[in-house]
From TrEMBL:
Gene Ontology molecular-function annotations: flavin adenine dinucleotide binding; oxidoreductase activity, acting on CH-OH group of donors
Keyword hit for Cell cycle: no
Annotated protein name in UniProt: Glucose-methanol-choline oxidoreductase N-terminal domain-containing protein
Gene3D superfamilies on file: FAD/NAD(P)-binding domain (3.50.50.60), Glucose Oxidase, domain 3 (3.30.560.10)
Pfam families: GMC_oxred_N (PF00732)
InterPro entries assigned: FAD/NAD-bd_sf, GMC_OxRdtase, GMC_OxRdtase_N
Keywords: FAD, Flavoprotein
Species annotation: Anopheles maculatus
Protein family: Belongs to the GMC oxidoreductase family.
Source species, domain of life: Eukaryota
Location of the Glucose-methanol-choline oxidoreductase N-terminal domain: 132-155
Length: 232
């Protein structure tokens, strides 16, 4: 029952992105109440042990990867804890739905202190400060865009005394986790080919996207791989 309802909603959302008026037909309240009522994935019942070799608090991307890697050793016991809910098939998988999930309890929903110069259109001049809550962490509500930092940030962290955090230190690790399928920059030496994380271009480009890139180039910006250390 839930699967077919959610499929209809997902389809409506996709169409809503294309045909703007459709959005107004979809009530945010209805969707969020659907999400609240939806059945989470059944992870199976496991009996808690008296003790564990590793206890990981927080099942965000970091905690999940850590638990996955540690539990590859069958002799090791791992407990992964999260304060939030489990995943809901389709809803928590699609980046398209992320912004909607940010309106549910998949988001801690923090607000900043009152701002003097920002968020002036928001209640009390307080910015929304999204932070994912549940199995998947902020990847439940994020946009699933693969973005490495700028090399200067990493080098700054290394200079501040964090050994192993320079761009040259982290680049081999970025490459190791990645299987890149990137049209224009895949062979530039900054990408991996056999990691577990698949990274690829959006499968199509619209005329507007092409025009956007062209006009940025005309304005003097370089068309570059923003994951190769320099973002601009
Ligand atoms: C709106 C938004 C959009 C984003 N877009 C992108 C993007 O497009 N691309 C990108 O690469 N990154 C994006 N990010 C950033 C990315 O999601 C985070 O860098 C990433 O999720 C961090 O992973 P993490 O495991 O370190 O922490 P988190 O994802 O924050 O996970 C922390 C986990 O800990 C749990 N937790 C917290 N407190 C407790 C507690 N006391 N007990 C038990 N569990 C607890 C939480 O429920 C959560 O599951 C975005 C982030 C946000 C908020």
């Amino acid at each position: 029952m839930f699967r077919s309802r959610s499929a209809v909603i997902s389809l409506a959302l996709i169409l809503g992105g294309i045909v703007q008026p459709t959005v107004s037909l979809i009530s945010l309240g209805n969707i969020t109440s659907l999400i609240y009522d939806a059945k989470e994935i059944n992870y199976g019942r496991h009996t808690l042990l008296d003790s564990y070799d590793f206890i990981i608090v927080g099942a965000g991307p970091a905690g999940c990867v850590l638990a996955n890697r540690l539990s590859e050793d069958p002799t090791v016991t791992v407990l992964l804890l999260d304060i939030g809910r489990g995943e809901i098939p389709l809803f928590t998988d699609s980046p398209l739905v992320g912004p909607l999930l940010a309106s549910t309890d998949y988001n801690f929903g923090y607000e900043t202190e009152k701002q003097q110069n920002g968020c002036l259109g928001l209640r009390g001049h307080r910015c929304s400060w999204a932070h994912g809550r549940g199995v998947g962490g902020s990847s439940i509500i994020n946009n699933v865009i693969f973005t490495r930092g700028n090399r200067r940030d990493y080098d700054g962290w290394a200079r501040a005394g964090n050994e192993g955090w320079s761009w040259n230190d982290v680049l081999p690790l970025f490459k190791r986790i990645e299987t890149a399928n990137i049209r224009d920059f895949g062979d530039n030496g900054f990408h991996g080919t056999d990691g577990r994380l698949s990274v690829e271009d959006a499968p199509f480009r619209t005329d507007i996207a092409r025009a956007f890139v062209k006009s940025a180039e005309a304005a003097g910006y370089r068309y570059l791989d923003y994951n190769a250390g320099d973002n601009l």
